Amino acid sequence: MKADAVFEGGGVRGIAFIGAIQVMEANGYKWERLAGTSAGSVVAALLACGYSARELIEIMNTLDYSRLLGKTWLHYLPFVGKAAPLLFRSGIYLNTPLEDKLTYLLNQKGVSTFADLPEGKLKIIASDISSGKMLVLPDDLSRYDISPSQFPIATAVRMSTTIPYFFQPYRLKTKVRRKAFYILDGGLLSNYPIWLFDVEGIPRWPTFGFRLLGEHTEIPIHDIRGPFSMFRAMFQTMLKAHDQRHVDKHAKRRTVFIPTGRVTATQFDLSAEDRDSLFQSGQDAALKFLSGWDSEQYIKEYRISYEHK
Question: CA 279, CA 105: separation in Å to the nearest integer?
Fold first, then answer.
């Protein structure tokens, strides 16, 4: 059975997607087109390049997530620590280790740039804060006079996963202008682009969305005393905002909602217990979703949504 898949952003909590994918593949689903934001872009890229759920499980179990936090000499300055790179580089960590790891993994499948995939196979969401525009890659590379055949998929994923302030912004240098474009996490503008593959008329196959749901706890009131406490409040508000966003009736019908408990997006010191819990939650959520899924009923119910879009 063919299906498209769209994966939400969510940092290290994206491990839960692997559990859901394993169940979907075991039930006969094969992925035609894939899209993702932030952590979802990592999963989407690996699937698009030929990785199976079994292979993703192996990667999940062997990856040292703490090594994805790129550090520089600034981190080792006494007293200032993380504040130094934040002040001088607009982000605490480098995001290059993820790009390097993904480059290696994709090369194992003979893939490097978007030209190595069938046209339309993979879409990655990022945010150009210099222009104030959402990017759908590789489609929007033409804005910068860049050819998809020359642009690494791993770089696009790095852009999409660059959480503001936590990671240093990606600086895209082009011939379009002298100054670089600053690119950040796709979740700033579209954390859950479930609409991306929608077409007019009856869809040839369904688009399934995979969304992470953190524990619904009351957001505490932040005591703002200066620039650093304000930054902390802004950062925590941004990370929690995605869980509060509304999903309309149509999106809800085709979405696998995966609870992620108290695990946070930037919890890179993840324990084996937390990792296994996320994976199991993904499996459970996919099984629950499939128990109530009816393709024919879905098409009948939402045909008008496509015809009058």
Answer: 21
Q: Angle at which helices 96-107 and 39-48 pack, to 10 degrees?
A: 10
Q: Name residues whose C-beta falls within 8 Å of residue 171's C-beta, 6 or more positions apart in sequence.
A: 180, 181, 182, 183
Question: What is the CA angle 95-139-189, rounded to 5?
Answer: 55
Q: What is the pLDDT of residues 156-211, one digit of tens each?
A: 999 999 988 888 899 998 887 888 999 999 888 888 888 889 876 667 788 999 99
Q: Which residues are catalytic?
A: 38, 185
Instruction: Return the amino acid letter for 280.
Output: Q
Distance CA 283, CA 101 (A): 25
Alpha helices, DSSP H, located in 27-78? 39-48, 53-62
**Mean pLDDT score of the chain, rounded to an integer?**
85
Question: What is the chain's Cα-based Rg?
Answer: 19
Asked if 20 and 282 count as a contact pair (C-beta separation under 8 A), the reply is yes
When pLDDT is cut at 50, 70 and 90, the band that residue 250 belongs to is confident
Task: Note the pTM of the prediction, 2 decimals.
Answer: 0.85
